[in-house]
Amino acid sequence: MVVPEPGLPAAVTIYEVGARDGLQNEKALVPVEVKEEFVRRLLAAGLPIVEATSFVHPRWVPQLADAAELMTRLGPDGVDLPVLVPNERGLDRALELGLRHVAIFGSATETFARKNLNRSFDEQFAMFEPTVDRARAAGLDVRAYVSMCFGDPWEGAVPIEQVVAAGTRLLDLGASQLSLGDTIGVGTAGHVTALVAAFAAAGVGADRLALHFHDTYGQALSNVQAGLRAGVTTYDASAGGLGGCPYAESATGNLATEDLVWLLTGLGVEHGVDLASLVATSTWMAGHLGRESPSAVVRALGGA
Ligand code: HMG
Ligand code: MG
After folding, report:
1. Which class for 135: exposed (0-12), middle (13-18), buried (19 or more C-beta within 10 A)?
2. What's the average model confidence in pLDDT over 117-146?
3. Domain span at 262
4. Where's the Pyruvate carboxyltransferase domain (predicted)?
5. What pLDDT shows up at residue 243?
6. How far is the CA of 6 from the centre of ligand 2 (A)?
């Protein structure tokens, strides 16, 4: 039954990260033809944005070493799908394929900048600056992620001011949207409210933010509700709840797209996704990965 909660946005955009954040963390290497079918099925299920892969160093993330092959196979259907690029080398690889949307990914903490990017906190911006400048000069749209917004496995609590400082620096480089990552899933609703308010106080409205929750502590849906109340209208999620980050041990699966869709439908918030075909896709992918989907909704609806 649809029982809307007053004051929520009428519609949101789901930014699907399963093919990237999900598959980057799988122990088994997924064949490129399976990835291609996964992406095509996600698009067919009505997901408006499907992040496809990462142009990172293949030694760092071997699971996505086939990025160029995947995007070549997707052909014209892939040019508007965002891909991660950490640096100019990654951008060059995306430009060679004519891609139009890239995402840089920074860290709010010193330790994770070193572990994930082999750069200090300050050095990461020096790496991103020419990457974003060149991407924008070539007419590309650039999204920026900032990780460890709610806590860091090595540094513990991360001060809100530190997250706002890192996030605004990434936006100032020329990114169109900032995705706030709860990389290890420790955030809770009040923290989301406070962080979005702190960005607003720094001049970054909810319309420029996206929220990216991992569900390690089972807080992701509650955190989405806090985000909705604060006016955020873009939510990252991963089909079937796949995901994690290979350079953050305590990062488990992302918020499952199916769980998000169930919540939004119940609240009467438009999302445009066909739940049945999404569940069928995640069930099919769980079969390839040889394990049950962690998504409660996929399991409830009879999927793997
Ligand atoms: P580095 O070793 O410092 O690289 O790694 P470098 O700049 O010193 O270059 C060394 C060699 O790597 C050079 O080759 C470069 O050309 C090559 P050589 O001259 O020695 O033959 N190289 C590349 N090759 C292919 N593609 C590239 C590339 N860059 C350099 N893009 C680097 C620095 C950033 C490359 C490395 O640390 C890296 O690839 N990190 C990626 C880690 C990653 O993908 N993590 C997961 C994504 S982040 C995430 O999941 C969080 C998120 O979901 C949000 C959240 O949950 O919070 C987004
Ligand atoms: Mg993530």
Report:
1. buried
2. 98
3. 13-301
4. 12-279
5. 83
6. 30
Using a 6 Å cutoff on CB, does residue 88 contact ligand 1? no
Query: pLDDT per residue over 213-254, tens digit each?
Result: 999 999 999 999 999 999 999 999 999 999 866 676 656 789
> Which of 245, 256, 275, 298 is an active site residue?
245
Q: What is the pLDDT of residue 249?
A: 66
Burial, 10: exposed, middle or buried (Cβ in 10 Å; 0-12, 13-18, 19+)? exposed
Domain count for the chain, please give it.
1
- 195 alpha-carbon distance from chain centroid: 18
Region 66-89: mean pLDDT is 98
Active site residue 245: yes
Which domain CATH number covers 210? 3.20.20.70
| CB-based burial label for 159 (10 Å; 0-12, 13-18, 19+) | exposed
pLDDT bracket for residue 4 (50, 70, 90): confident
Residue 7 lies in a domain: no
Q: Is residue 278 part of a domain?
A: yes
Atom of ligand 1 nearest to the CA of 251: 56
State pTM to two decimals.
0.97
Q: Is residue 4 part of a domain?
A: no
Average pLDDT estimate for 35-46? 98
Q: What is the best residue among 20, 53, 57 to mutate for testing ligand 1's pocket, by most ligand atoms within 8 Å of CB?
A: 57
Residues 185, 245 contacting (CB under 8 angstroms): no
Among protein residues, the one with the nearest Cα to ligand 1's atom 45 is 116
Q: Is residue 186 part of a domain?
A: yes
C-alpha 55 to ligand 1 mean position (Å): 8
> At 1, which amino acid appears?
M
pLDDT band for 26, please (50, 70, 90 cuts): confident
